[in-house]
Amino acid sequence: MKVDQWTMALAAAGLITQATAMRAEEKVNSALTALSSTTLSGYVDTSAQWNFGTGNANLPPYKFGGAGKADGFNLDVVQLRLEKPLDETEWAAGYRVDLWLGPDANSLRTSSLFGNGGFAGQNDFALRQAYVSLRLPIYNGLDWKIGVFDSIIGYESVEAPSDPNYTRSYGHTLEPQTHTGVLASYRFSNLVSASLGIANTLGPAINGRASAPFNPMAESYKTYMGSIALTAPESWASLSGSTLYAGAVNGFDPGYLGSASSYYVGATLATPVSGLRFGTAWDYLDVGNLSGENWAVAGYISYQATEKLSFHARAEYLKDRGAAKFFIDNFGNPTNPDEVLDLTLTLEYDLWKNVLSRLELRWDHSLSGQGVYGGANTTDTAGTGDLKNAWMLAANVIYRF
Fold it and tell me: Can you tell me the distance from the alpha carbon of 241 to that of 297, in angstroms, rounded to the nearest whole number?
């Protein structure tokens, strides 16, 4: 066994024994071997935003937006990822840890009940994901995630560089985000895959519970989820690689103190035109016995014009009304009209290596005759809004490593 010179010097000086030196070296080598397959990656997400007009007390309440980013320069978030992915062996094992630092980390709300951030997690730090991944050699291989992981439904990602647009959709905002539990995934073939999971709650708080002393459900009450993905085969010619995805999550929602269900259907369609893809997404939130309509449908277009230049557009319709209205503030007041149209245009030009840079124009329009945008420093009553339109122009620069 090879022992480093420093350890040998300590042994020669009588500060440690030769046997201790060898055991210490064994532990160091074992740790280095385990770490050698671990990768460090992540990104730094920054932006600058201009909201047209005067008064930003009431802005469209999509996730990772809000008045805190209006009319100024922003650090959105820094993500650090430590990961040992599953390899191709039968009994593969690995892990992933995603850490978030910066203002967007507060929106994740993953702080555990007794964490330093409390319920809101307002400390600019969050644990986005942390799970152990395992494979059982059952036919094509049954893969497991055990710990904290992202929701299995949705067209858009919580990870900004993976999204076609800078701002998030209302459908993404309606979806559950993070679960503490177990998720099993199996690929039947190159065309069909599925996932099934069980978690504590629908809510993002790590180790949250649906039962007493903080919530009213029985100790046995859990959250259940499932999804299926279909991929078009090569024989479909220009449609090859198109995907259809459907999923559902049902369980206890701490926000409503009762059961809730989220349903999702989405598709990505390849086309005969090189670089042109279409997408669609439908999200529906059903909150127990409360009457309401909480759903959104969106269409996406992406065109990769050159290696560096691409264009992305999203059109979305949101219906959010009734006793279970999703977009309300802490005092129970609506923060969005009953019906909303969102149009988003994004130009991406990646001039520098590892840098994603994009310019985005977004328009949110009230279709219900109800105006709630604006407020404070406008002609309406301070703190309230009566505008039916909200316009925003943003520049987004992300460095990925």
Answer: 22
